[in-house]
Design a protein that fits this description.
By secondary structure, the chain is an all-alpha fold. The chain is 75% helix and 0% strand.
Length: 465
């Protein structure tokens, strides 16, 4: 009976988040969700004291460790905020939008966006980098064509996470294969059996949707004209994203790449867009470029749609997300230290019978960990650690475990509003998680495909080769 009490913190969190979303809507992430996570953490602490007599020092240590583990993500998030400001005001993103609107026709835009992001993500091995650079430009192009934000963000995320999942350069791909004890390329080849069909289904949906949508582009020429009047548009500006791609291809550390990408764009902004820098801070170009990096900027173009598109938030715009990540890690720390997460996982293992239930339990555990721990890396590690002996004892190949971890944990992390992935992508794209969630077909279908393949009877217990 005591183990069922471990469900109370998660039920409390779900209830609190539901009330927040109902009361605040898209503004829930401005503070209400953070408070809800802290309240759910308090409930968990109470349950831990009541059930297990957990010492406060162990809770504090686990919370501190969890927060410390996400510091690299927080720094990367702040650098992405700097890139968002500098790449926009320097004219890099506007140049990409300017040429992209002319090349990507409206009827093929959604499917093209997914394919383009998939290609870039496979090459760079990072969905975060793909979304923060190419994704931002594609959002602008999609808005220029009149597409709904949810559809555009869904197509971008679908492509970015497909590429990230299959790239040998991806940290989640390497992590999933290593913690399960599966060779990297064995893991990637086995993932293709579920990943490629799911992506193809998603592309078909985006293709049909694009062809059926009545998206007017009558304002395209005036939009491009206004863009050209506001920014100095030039193909030379594309050298910055090209150099950024070279650094990524050479596998430079993410922080170094993002810092240099922001620095190059800041220099370009001062040299190439002096009028805009003067508009942001009339008395000093130094103050102007610093404000672009750390603060919000709004350039007046005379067109409300374009004004909204090119406004930036800089590092300061990332602070609500940083706040949310810290609160999420507090909750993850207390559910781990009190042992309530372990109790819930033991309940899951009791219902495992055949192949389909084993795969379903693994995938659902990954999703549950994304919700509870708010971090995809922790979700992959915990899910793999929990099920590794089960797969081995029952005679299943460990590549099935590594694939299912990715199908469940990796791709669904972006669908959880308080998960680090969901927070970053929604902040970078300027689209609420619950707005793009229904259109992330690849991410939604991946766990289902994994379970369907397992239920087909083609997977049977066997010893590793």
């Amino acid at each position: 009976m005591k183990k069922y009490l471990s469900l109370i913190p998660f039920i409390a969190l779900i209830a609190l988040i539901a009330v927040c979303v109902s009361a605040f809507g898209t503004d829930a992430l401005d503070g209400a969700t953070q408070v809800s996570l802290l309240l759910a953490s308090a409930v968990c602490v109470f349950v831990g004291f009541l059930m297990k007599r957990v010492e406060w020092e162990s809770l504090e240590r686990e919370m501190t460790d969890k927060i410390a583990s996400c510091m690299p993500s927080i720094i990367i998030l702040l650098l992405i905020g700097a890139i968002g400001g500098t790449w926009m005001i320097s004219g890099i993103v506007p140049t990409m939008i300017y040429y992209g609107v002319q090349v990507l026709r409206p009827e093929w835009f959604l499917v093209s966006s997914s394919l383009f992001c998939a290609l870039v993500s496979v090459m760079v091995g990072s969905s975060w980098t793909t979304v923060a650079t190419i994704g931002v430009a594609l959002m602008g192009i999609g808005r220029a064509h009149g597409f709904d934000d949810g559809w555009v963000a869904g197509s971008i995320i679908t492509g970015a996470y497909f590429g990230d999942k299959l790239s040998p350069l991806s940290d989640t791909t390497v992590l999933a294969s290593s913690v399960s004890g599966t060779p990297l390329f064995t893991h990637i080849r086995y993932m293709m059996k579920t990943t490629i069909p799911t992506f193809c289904i998603s592309l078909v949906i985006f293709t049909v949707a694009g062809l059926m949508m009545d998206v007017a582009d009558s304002s395209e020429m005036s939009f491009l004209s206004q863009l050209q009047e506001t920014f100095l548009i030039s193909p030379w500006l594309l050298l910055v994203p090209v150099l950024t791609g070279v650094m990524i291809a050479r596998r430079w550390p993410a922080m170094v790449v993002l810092f240099l990408a922001a620095l190059m764009a800041a220099i370009v902004a001062v040299v190439w867009q002096p009028a805009l820098i003067s508009q942001i801070a009339e008395d000093s170009w130094y103050k102007g470029i610093m404000k672009v990096i750390y603060g919000s900027t709004r350039v007046q173009t005379g067109t409300p749609t374009l004004d909204e598109l090119i406004q930036t938030r800089g590092m300061a715009g990332m602070m609500p997300t940083v706040w949310l990540i810290i609160c999420a890690q507090v909750f993850g720390g207390v559910v781990t230290a009190t042992g309530v997460l372990r109790d819930v996982m033991e309940m899951v293992l009791r219902v495992v019978r055949g192949t389909a239930s084993l795969v379903a339990s693994t995938a659902l555990t990954g999703i549950f960990c994304n919700i509870a721990l708010a971090d995809q890396f922790l979700s992959i590690i915990l899910t793999s650690s929990m099920f590794k002996d089960v797969y081995r004892d029952r005679g299943y190949e460990l590549r099935l475990l590594s694939r299912t971890c990715e199908d469940g944990a990796t791709v669904t992390s972006v669908l959880v509003p308080w998960n680090t992935c969901g927070l970053v992508q929604s902040t970078v794209l300027g689209v609420a998680t619950l707005t793009y969630l229904p259109y992330c077909f690849f991410n939604l279908l991946s766990p289902i495909t994994s379970i369907v393949v397992a239920a087909s009877g083609r997977i049977r217990p066997t010893k590793d080769e």
